[in-house]
Write a structure and sequence with these properties.
It contains three helices and no strands. With 71 residues, the chain is mainly α.
Length: 71
């Protein structure tokens, strides 16, 4: 069960990096024209990282962690 907590921690950093990559690539006139994706990606990156960090802080015997570890 401890490996799932490390996986959640890794997913936190991966989701943070990928969403900030999307944020950087969606800057106006880089790949797309003016869009709201830049602001949304920045906020979503912090939200996803927070969720994964919260999941990694839960005890291993939590029902949610047990359910997610089956996946």
């Amino acid at each position: 069960m401890q490996n799932i907590k490390v996986s959640f921690l890794a997913l936190s950093f991966i989701s943070l990096a990928l969403m900030f990559l999307l944020h950087g690539l969606s800057m106006p006139h880089l790949l797309l024209h003016i869009t709201h994706l830049t602001g949304v990606a920045a906020q979503l990156s912090m939200f996803l990282a927070t969720i994964w960090l919260w999941l990694s802080s839960l005890p291993s015997d939590n029902k949610l962690i047990a359910f997610l570890s089956q996946w």
